Amino acid sequence: xxxxxxxxxxxDYVVGLNNLTLGRVNRLDNSVLLPGGKGINVSRILxxxxxxxxxxxxxxGFTGQFITDQLxxxxxxxxxxxxxxxxxxxxxxxxxxxxxxxxxxxxxSAEEIAAFKGQLDQLQSGDVVVMAGSLPNGLPESFxxxxxxxxxxHGADFVIDTTGQALLDxxxxxxxxxxxxxxxxxxxxxxxEYTSLDEIVTAGRKLLDLGAQHVLVSMxxxxxxxxxxxxxxxxxxxxxxxxxxxxxxxxxxxxFTGTFATTHDPLASFQVAIACGSATAFSTDLAxxxxxxxxxxxxxxxEL
Length: 304
Ligand SMILES: Nc1ncnc2c1ncn2[C@@H]1O[C@H](COP(=O)(O)OP(=O)(O)OP(=O)(O)O)[C@@H](O)[C@H]1O
Ligand SMILES: O=P(O)(O)OC[C@@]1(O)O[C@H](CO)[C@@H](O)[C@@H]1O
What we know:
This protein has about 300 residues and is of the alpha/beta class. Helix content is about 35%, strand content about 20%. The chain folds into 2 domains: about 1-20 and about 30-160, UDP-N-acetylmuramoyl-L-alanine:D-glutamate ligase (3-Layer(aba) Sandwich), CATH 3.40.1190; about 175-304, Ribokinase (UDP-N-acetylmuramoyl-L-alanine:D-glutamate ligase, 3-Layer(aba) Sandwich), CATH 3.40.1190.20. The chain is built from 10 helices and 13 strands. Pfam families: PfkB (PF00294).
């Protein structure tokens, strides 16, 4: 089972308009409400891949109820911890550019935190917990790291979608996979932007040396890399019209984690990861099973 943890879910209010003029009344051309939050996106992609998943995290109020209802319509199993405050609403504004307005999120009480931690008692050996997204108010910065021993004591693996020092701090605990993009990788090591794949591979290997079990590096339209101690592969991304970058990284992480948990085949998992990321990039919402399959058949993986 792959559990996603979304401590700060959101309704994503996706609004489209041709031109945005700040300081004026702007009329929208279209709008849609989607259940959002990085862990929830991971679970939605796992569901599309027909892999077993349960979404955990904090949910509350009328906004939380909307998310629970939408996930029930998708037949996606959830075991959220109910909170008193309202789950947040994030605005995704699609005009000439994509602009995201993400709210800080609700206040979480000590009792709610304890109830959430109790959910981890159900973990079993072989499970994977994917923790992704920001922390709502009331949680210490160390919250994700504090969960790692609770996950490991059940023999389960973990993935944390984070960057910077927070990412480096998790490596000694051997995350199943890390997936920085190439800009984040350079920032991690205080390097200037990389100008060759060799430089990215060398930096990616440092993450393995520091403890990561698998390293993927995404490079948006330039494809992605999978790096092991002695080999590296480049995966192409298909040409296509990018409709949406919200959730592309979450989709990639879901594709790798879900496929690896069921096959233990890193290369096959890498291909599905790219397919999920690109299929979401080419869709208005997260990718569907059909889109993932269509995109997967066009991806070429080459050993460097
Ligand atoms: N222009 C593109 N064409 C095709 N696929 C793309 C494109 N941009 C992104 N993707 C897909 O999305 C994946 C993740 O993209 P990216 O490198 O932008 O990661 P990220 O920065 O973590 O994403 P996010 O914007 O979700 O944080 C890529 O590996 C790829 O599969
Ligand atoms: O504010 P956070 O938790 O960092 O990110 C939240 C979020 O932007 O991430 C998802 C896309 O990755 C969206 O569904 C959601 O609105």
